[in-house]
Structure to design on (207 residues):
């Protein structure tokens, strides 16, 4: 665990030795006897204490929450997920979910719950609604849960792709093409005489 272990000896009045075990400068246990026996007894007691501590930690339900985005609850109205638009600016699903939350002014929460051993469960909550979950090591479980959440959301929600480098998409056009088409169309279009905006502008002196 990259920690320091230290044994400190003290000669007692009865000529026996006391050995104390320190882990990261914290005294864990002590043992008595000859110098050799006291060290062995102290180490054995320290090991028992550590094993008991570890079993107590494993039996606890450890939960951690990571929240991203701004909540709509301050305005008194909770946003409806049916209006959600997925904003995909990266191939990383965690970034996609975080960007989506910001884009829709919603909150996305990653709720981590410790399982047995080194395994963790990660739940993805969007506006307090459960979307998906995954179980695995803590280092990768968030990514796996986010990936599953994006897959589920894409089945029902529209997606805005903001990365042309991801590959060729038939329906995608560049900004320059949009500007070019807009300029061409602007010259072709003419506001009709019965248009309200046209009438108001004419009254203001425009032709």
């Amino acid at each position: 665990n990259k920690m320091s272990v230290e044994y400190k000896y003290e000669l007692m009045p009865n000529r026996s030795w006391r050995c104390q075990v320190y882990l990261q400068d914290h005294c864990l246990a002590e043992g008595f006897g000859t110098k050799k026996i006291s060290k062995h007894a102290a180490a054995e007691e320290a090991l028992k204490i550590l094993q008991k501590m570890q079993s107590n930690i494993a039996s606890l339900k450890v939960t951690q929450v990571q929240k991203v985005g701004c909540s709509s609850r301050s305005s008194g109205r909770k946003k409806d997920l049916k209006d959600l638009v997925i904003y995909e600016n990266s191939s990383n699903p965690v970034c996609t979910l975080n960007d989506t939350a910001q884009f829709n002014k919603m909150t996305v929460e990653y709720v981590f719950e410790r399982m047995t051993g080194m395994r963790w469960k990660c739940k993805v909550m969007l506006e307090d609604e459960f979307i998906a979950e995954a179980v695995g090591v803590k280092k990768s479980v968030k990514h796996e849960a986010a990936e599953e959440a994006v897959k589920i959301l894409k089945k029902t929600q529209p997606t805005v792709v903001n990365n042309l480098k991801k590959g060729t998409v038939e329906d995608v056009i560049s900004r320059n093409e949009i500007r070019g088409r807009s300029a061409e169309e602007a010259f072709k279009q003419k506001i009709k005489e019965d248009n309200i905006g046209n009438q108001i502008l004419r009254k203001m002196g425009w032709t």
